[in-house]
Amino acid sequence: MIRPRHSMPDDVAKALKTAGLRRHYDARPNYQRNDYIGWINRARTAKTRTKRIAQMLDELERGGVYMRMPHPASARKT
């Protein structure tokens, strides 16, 4: 099964830039970036979309987590 590729929506790009997290987003594997965008795009309401963008930004800022699951490869080095 081929997974659909999702392009970056303007509101997500703006949120990443405003939060200063684009480099953390770009450092994630392709499948994670694609999954985040697809998940955000599937939101049925603006409220849900906003919550999903906020979750993505939080996970990128904290590092070490992806879709509320541990992701050691993205953990911040102290």
Automatic annotation (TrEMBL):
The record's section on Pfam families has: OmdA (PF13376)
- Source domain of life: Bacteria
Report what the protein is called: Bacteriocin-protection, YdeI or OmpD-Associated
